[in-house]
């Protein structure tokens, strides 16, 4: 099967291509970039091709989300490989890294293989399952790192928490390095998560707003301390360290230092952390509760500056679906986490590209090329001949209102419901196959 994407503005971070081209997809691969005539010449007259109109749209490499929670196995009432995959496709995301904090925790070769096998059948997008660092994410003994590497894990993560025992963690890093795996770190000193004044478990950022709402707070140091520790351990062991859901100015400063020192590190920021601050928390409600929490404006500004410079080179979502019952509650009761797959590209385009922080090419870099490089996926993250046809056709002019009722994800938990945004996904292709077609364009056709 061939697909002919016509008249799109190709953005390719690998070769620097930044111009209007037609793109011919043949099977799973990108066959040719060229003019209408050049593509027409390759095709036989009677040949059956799928034509997609990309006029006025960017053709970018499919987004690669290094951080999602698909809750499968065990917590399927929140999300499944199928619904999570459909939400991803809708957001222009063609590959996800699924965190291992499922039920059971993914900590063996067999469990990784099982998710990979099922994902091929059930999810429309590529799913890379990450394995836990310790058995059951309990922080007591190391999981079967070698076995998980053999199952194609690529990276390990204890997401949801940090490995608090530094010696055990260092040992895990050494083994990960030996088998070519990266470490994706959730940085949180759990013993400090309690409010320094009241000792109660923190539910939002510690600041004037938390005082005003009478809620227990989480200080920036809860993140910064472990960020620093992890960077030093990465330096000692040589493993590649990727910092998840960075939220503080301190983390940006530490990342800048680590990169100057030549440590093998990368870092991601999620839309909620570079868009919202504690000023946006209008009431004591679970839709504003996530870990790490929304921080203050000075942090948001530092994150944006870091993204602009490329110190923070990845935009991920930390897509964390929960049921309505788990989220429609005051902060003390609600679960940590918000969904992000279906809003990430629109929010990033609206806030960062329209907002003058990133060029459209840099958006493709942060959302696809850089994550592909971190994972070592040479065939992804690029719209150039011979690469895998994981593609997104993104329309920068379509304005719409975010409506959780339309979400394909089971999770509707987001503070962005009702937000007006600019830029939307028109088509998503995975391995050359059309896996998402935006219904908003059907009426026009
Ligand atoms: N981010 C969150 O608030 N929650 C995540 C866990 C995590 O990413 O640490 C979850 O699994 O729900
Ligand atoms: Zn986390
Ligand atoms: Zn997470």
Automatic annotation (TrEMBL):
Domain Amidohydrolase-related: 58-435
Alphabetical list of Pfam families matching this protein: Amidohydro_1
Reactions the enzyme catalyzes: (S)-dihydroorotate + H2O = N-carbamoyl-L-aspartate + H(+)
Gene3D superfamilies per UniProt: Metal-dependent hydrolases, Urease, subunit C, domain 1
Keywords assigned: Hydrolase, Metal-binding, Pyrimidine biosynthesis, Zinc
Active-site residues annotated for this sequence: 318
Ligand binding (Zn(2+) 2): 159, 186, 245
Keyword Nucleotide-binding: no
Binding site for substrate: 69-71, 101, 291, 322, 336-337
Co-factor remark: Binds 2 Zn(2+) ions per subunit.
Listed GO biological process terms: 'de novo' UMP biosynthetic process; purine nucleobase catabolic process
Cofactor(s) this protein cannot do without: Zn(2+)
Listed GO MF terms: allantoinase activity; dihydroorotase activity; zinc ion binding
UniProt-annotated binding residues for Zn(2+) 1: 67, 69, 159, 318
PROSITE patterns per record: DIHYDROOROTASE_1, DIHYDROOROTASE_2
EC top class, as a word: hydrolase
Family according to the record: Belongs to the metallo-dependent hydrolases superfamily. DHOase family. Class I DHOase subfamily.
UniProt-recorded name of the protein: Dihydroorotase
Phylogenetic lineage: Bacteria, Bacillati, Bacillota, Clostridia, Lachnospirales
């Amino acid at each position: 099967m061939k697909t002919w994407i016509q008249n799109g503005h190709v953005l390719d971070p690998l070769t620097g291509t930044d111009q209007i081209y037609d793109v011919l997809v043949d099977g799973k691969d990108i066959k040719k970039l060229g003019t209408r005539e050049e593509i027409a010449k390759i095709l036989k007259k009677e040949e059956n091709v799928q034509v997609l109109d990309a006029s006025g749209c960017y053709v970018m490499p499919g987004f690669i989300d290094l951080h999602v929670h698909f809750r499968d196995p065990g917590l399927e009432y929140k999300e499944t490989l199928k619904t999570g995959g459909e939400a991803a496709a809708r957001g222009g995301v063609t590959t996800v890294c699924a965190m291992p904090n499922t039920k059971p925790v993914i900590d063996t070769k067999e469990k990784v293989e099982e998710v990979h096998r099922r994902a091929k059948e059930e999810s429309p997008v590529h799913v890379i399952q990450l394995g836990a660092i310790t058995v059951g994410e309990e922080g007591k003994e190391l999981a079967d790192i070698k076995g998980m590497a053999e199952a194609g894990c690529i990276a390990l993560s204890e997401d949801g928490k940090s490995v608090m025992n530094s010696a055990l963690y260092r040992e895990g890093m050494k083994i990960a390095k030996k088998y070519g795996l990266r470490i994706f770190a959730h940085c949180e000193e759990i013993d400090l998560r309690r409010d320094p004044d009241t000792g109660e478990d923190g539910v939002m950022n510690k600041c004037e707003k938390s005082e005003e709402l009478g809620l227990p707070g989480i200080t920036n140091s809860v993140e910064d301390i472990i960020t620093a520790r992890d960077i030093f351990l990465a330096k000692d062991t040589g493993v590649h360290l990727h910092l998840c859901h960075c939220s503080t100015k301190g983390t940006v400063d530490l990342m800048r230092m680590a990169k100057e020192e030549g440590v093998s590190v990368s870092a991601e920021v999620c839309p909620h952390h570079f868009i919202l601050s504690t000023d946006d928390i209008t009431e004591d409600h679970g839709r504003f509760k996530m870990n790490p929490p929304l921080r203050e404006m000075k942090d948001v500004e530092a994150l944006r500056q870091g993204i602009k410079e490329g110190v923070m080179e990845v935009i991920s979502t930390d897509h964390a679906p929960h049921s309505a019952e788990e989220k429609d509650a005051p902060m003390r009761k609600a679960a940590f986490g918000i969904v992000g797959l279906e809003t990430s590209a629109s929010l990033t385009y609206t806030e960062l590209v329209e907002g003058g922080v990133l060029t459209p090419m840099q958006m493709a870099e942060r959302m696809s090329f850089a994550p592909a490089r971190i994972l070592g996926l040479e065939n992804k993250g690029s719209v150039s001949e011979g690469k895998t046809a994981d593609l997104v056709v993104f329309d920068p002019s379509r304005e719409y209102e975010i409506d959780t009722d339309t979400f394909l994800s089971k999770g509707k938990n987001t503070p962005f419901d009702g937000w007006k945004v600019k830029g939307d996904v028109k088509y998503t292709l995975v391995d050359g196959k059309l896996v998402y077609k935006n219904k908003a364009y059907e009426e026009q056709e």
